[in-house]
Design goal:
Blueprint (H helix, E strand, L loop, with lengths): L1 H18 L2 E4 L1 H9 L3 H22 L4 E9 L13 E14 L4 E14 L7 E3 L1 E13 L7 H68 L5 H35 L7 E4 L4 H16 L11 H20 L5 E14 L1 E4 L2 E3 L2 H10 L3 E10 L5 H68 L5 H35 L11
Parallel strand pairs: 1-7, 5-10
Antiparallel strand pairs: 2-3, 3-4, 4-6, 6-8, 8-11, 9-10
Helix pairs in contact: 2-4, 3-4, 4-5, 4-7, 4-10, 6-9, 7-9, 9-10
């Protein structure tokens, strides 16, 4: 049984290994995989759909609606008074259409019919399908809080503006998501470059430690020299292991963003750092050529414009929050009755007869009146003040924060890139000179003119200079990515529009 379990385990592992593929990652592949779907893209789409739902719900209030009801009632009760008829069964139905308009007017038209019968009663008589039908048309006009539809229009307009804002936000967030993938990709590239340098220097340190151990064995080296090389090996092994851990962290983040990667093995495809840095500098030149904030490169200015309009609409709505509701209404209705004496103490009616009664006789009546609702106490007024403050703070924070981000991002980019470019130039010079010095230090060490500590210090200085150059290049890429998150429409090759 144990051997069988071992066999099945090995088989399962082998099947998994055979099913896995090796994916060579590059920016084009990342873009292709992103289009196939991602949880983040689904969340972005859901945010847009939520605003469209709210807009739809707001529009629902102003669409025509068919309404109605019907009932059938039977009873076996006894009349309290002898000449009072007990009606059973009773059939009632109503059908109508109503609509609310955004101008503060609502209308409805309906027809109601009531048809009832009663058992034979010597005093009350017998009724068969006695029918009452009423046709009515009602108009209601808001004359205070929503006069001329000022609240209805503001709410509907805000819902439409918010939907437009969400569409822009979707485009911006989709671009932001794509840039987050590119950040991870170039972080992996930087990690790979650092790993190659660290592994090469680890190999050198291991060779030196091995040589020192051999010299110690031959009694031509001291034990402290061997210990120093071993310490260097341990330190560089630690650096390599940390870089490998960092790589796995980046890959985990990438797999979370791109489920299409699955459990496949991921390696980096071909890349060209120098070409990419050239594209970055060209993009920087395009940005630097703008003498003022290039609002044409961003969609955030449109978002701000929509937020300002929403803010104005919210102010209109909130200002009337605690006002009285006052409306005038008028109803015109015609009621027809069908209950004709068919025999002594026997009456018969029909729906058609009630309609004929309306058509043949003047059965029209009307009703006019006023409805009002006035909040008492200060509760609603207090809520109004809180709503006004909340909406003002919330929208002003979004407006001012977005405007500041747009302006400051552009102003600071060129300065930051120029400084980082100068840093790279200095670091490359430093690495070049440290490389030359390291060649001389190796020769002097072999000639016993310098100590092992001096040689190790120069090797570590060269390593740190190379790694710092890689970090700075990555920082330049992240700086331009930060810019492109805001200025998504920047016309340059690196933006990959």
């Amino acid at each position: 049984m144990l051997n069988y379990l071992k066999f099945m385990t090995i088989l399962a592992i082998s099947a998994t290994a055979l099913g896995a593929q090796t994916i060579k990652l590059n920016e084009s592949l990342i873009e292709t995989l992103a289009k196939k779907g991602s949880p983040q893209l689904d969340e972005i789409e859901a945010a847009l759909l939520s605003t469209q739902v709210r807009e739809g719900e707001e529009n629902e209030s102003y669409s025509p609606e068919l309404f109605g009801r019907g009932s059938y009632t039977e009873t076996n009760e006894r009349a309290l008074i002898g000449f009072q008829p007990i009606f059973s069964p009773i059939k009632q139905a109503q059908l109508g259409v109503r609509q609310t308009f955004k101008h503060g007017v609502s209308t409805s038209a309906s027809i109601i019919t009531d048809q009832r019968s009663s058992s034979t009663s010597p005093l009350a008589g017998h009724f068969k399908d006695a029918t009452t039908t009423t046709m009515s048309f009602t108009v209601q006009l808001d004359v205070w809080k929503n006069l001329f539809g000022r609240l209805s229009k503001a709410k509907l307009d805000s819902a439409q503006l918010d939907s437009k804002r969400a569409k822009l936000e979707k485009e911006i967030q989709t671009k932001t998501f794509q840039i987050s993938l590119r950040r991870l990709y170039w972080s992996l590239v930087a990690n790979n470059e650092a790993l190659k340098i660290s592994e090469a220097l680890l190999e050198t340190a291991q060779t030196q430690a091995k040589d020192a151990a051999q010299r110690l064995k031959n009694a031509v080296a001291d034990a402290d020299e061997v210990a120093r090389y071993k310490a260097q090996v341990a330190a560089r092994q630690g650096s390599v292991l940390f870089l490998k851990y960092q790589k796995e962290t980046y890959l985990k983040q990438l797999r979370n963003l791109l489920p299409e990667l699955g459990t496949n093995e991921i390696t980096l495809g071909d890349y060209n750092i120098e070409k990419t840095m050239t594209e970055v500098l060209a993009c920087t030149s395009t940005i630097a050529s703008q003498t003022s904030v290039p609002y044409g490169f961003t969609k955030y200015d449109e978002v701000v414009g929509l937020l300002r309009k929403i803010r104005a609409n919210n102010a209109t709505v909130n200002a009337r929050y605690s006002d009285a509701d006052v409306s005038l209404f008028g109803t015109v209705k015609a009621t027809g009755v069908s209950s004709e004496e068919a025999a002594p103490a026997r009456y018969r009616g029909s729906f058609g007869g009630s309609i004929d009664d309306i058509e043949e006789q003047n059965r029209t009546g009307y009703e006019v009146g006023v409805n009002f609702s006035l909040p008492l106490g200060s509760v609603k007024e207090n809520t109004k003040r809180v709503k006004e403050l909340y909406d003002e703070k919330r929208l002003l924070a979004s407006i001012n924060g977005t405007e500041a981000q747009v302006v400051n991002t552009h102003i600071q980019l060129v300065k930051s890139i120029n400084l980082l470019t100068e840093v790279i130039t200095s670091q490359r010079t430093s690495s070049r000179e440290l490389g030359k010095r390291l060649v001389g230090m190796k020769r002097k060490y072999e000639q016993a003119r310098v100590s092992v500590n001096d040689l190790v210090m120069d090797q570590d200085a060269f390593l740190n200079s190379e790694l710092t150059t890689i970090d700075t290049q990555l920082q330049i890429l992240n700086t331009i990515f930060d810019y492109l998150v805001v200025y998504t429409e920047t016309p340059c090759v690196f933006n990959r529009n």
